[in-house]
Amino acid sequence: METATPWFPCWGLKFENSAISITDLVNKFLKNRPNNRWLLITKDAAASERHLWSTWYKMEKNFLEHTALSKNPDAEFIRIISGTHQLKTAFSRAGLNEHDTQAWLIHLPQSQENIDSLPKTSMTEFAESAQKLIYLIEATLITERPKPSKKGLVRLGIEFKGNDESINDNLFISHLARSSLTS
Fold first, then answer.
1. Out of 2, 73, 94, 125, which residue is the most buried by the measure of CB atoms under 10 Å away?
2. What is the spatial distance between Cα 36 and Cα 32, in angstroms, rounded to a whole number?
3. Residue 7: inside a domain, yes or no?
4. Could you tell me where the DSSP H helices lie in 39-137?
């Protein structure tokens, strides 16, 4: 029997203050986040709990094997979820752009001794830090979890010619492998 994938520590956000630019919002976030295991990605970049955990696993494995292309977990996660070797491309795909109005606030849990099992995490464990960050960047919580979308495929540069009903998180998860390929 297959077990359900646990929730990944992420919170959906909507940006309420249209007077603040995304650049200023991101700078405020970077200044106030507890550490570089907290990040923001565009809402369309996350397709499911499995997609986020698969990205997390690849990121942790890269650091364990000293093959990470970035020095920081937040940038490495964004690079991997974007399916690219290039950080500039990664941030344009999965990072926040000026027209984004929604995002995921993500916390990257520390890996345990055995990287082959997911870390035991509780959403409540990080809730206080998440609530503080949400307040500081003047966002509101949205009540949904990551789901695959056509907009996500386009944003991440995933070529897909099928119909919308066949879009699933496997398309996004297989795209992670492109982060290990060089042009």
1. 94
2. 11
3. no
4. 49-64, 73-82, 87-94, 123-136
Q: Which domain holds residue 30?
A: 16-111+118-180
Q: Which of 117, 2, 145, 147 is nearest to 57 (CA)?
A: 117
Q: Please tell me the pTM assigned to this model.
A: 0.92
Token pair, residue 71, equals 């020095």
| pLDDT tens digits for range 115-136 | 777 777 766 777 889 999 999 9
Does residue 1 belong to any structural domain of this protein? Answer: no
User: What's the chain's average pLDDT?
Assistant: 90
Residue 44 lies in a domain: yes
Which of 103, 100, 104, 67 shows the shortest CA–CA distance to 85?
A: 67
Decide the pairing of beta strands 102-107 and 139-142: unpaired
The total number of structural domains in the chain stands at 1
Q: Cα(139)–Cα(27) distance, rounded to whole angstroms?
A: 14
Place of tokens 């929730």: 7
Q: How confident is the model at residue 113 (pLDDT cuts 50, 70, 90)?
A: confident
pLDDT at position 182 is: 65
Paired with 139 in beta bridges are: 15
